[in-house]
Amino acid sequence: MESAQAAIKNNGLPSTTKSYGYPRDLADNPDIDIVVCSGRVDKHYETAMHSLKAGKDVYCEWPLAKDLAQAQEMESLSRSKGVRIIVGLQAWQSPFLNKIKEIVEGGKIGKTLSTTFVSNPGFFGLKEPENLAFTQNRKNGGNILTICWLKAMEAVFYSLGELESFSSIIRV
User: Fold this and answer.
1) Tens of pLDDT along 110-169?
2) For this UniProt entry, which segments traverse the membrane (predicted)?
3) Which of 68, 110, 112, 144 is least enclosed, having the fewest CB within 10 Å?
4) Which CATH superfamily is domain 2-88 in?
């Protein structure tokens, strides 16, 4: 609650702005129609499930859950409750990528025959920052592959189209 109150103050929000200490408290508020779930992957399930059970739509950042079983359970509950669970990937909002997509789809450069993607995640090294330590535990579902690489690949697929084939080289 302290960090929520600090965020309200730091962002100049009205003093009437509500803050919640637990996902269920947010989900139980009848004035809320949609809940945005943006945080650590291993916390998405708890936050989203409370909201889905309460009949709220949920917008969740990628990845949806820490594993396929949780994602399927969330999807099943959303269907049974008649609400939507939306997975957000930021690339679709990038003016740069939208321009690339427009050029490629418009045929201005002809058919895309190949592309090369090179990535250096930078912040994952011999000693990661403390706030990223959770990514070292596979059970949490959030790591360089499930977060960084897949978001980057989504940007490539979104702007250039789906792959017909691929080859890869990974170096450590």
Assistant:
1) 988 888 888 776 655 567 677 777 777 778 888 777 887 888 888 898 998 888 888 877
2) none
3) 110
4) NAD(P)-binding Rossmann-like Domain (3.40.50.720)
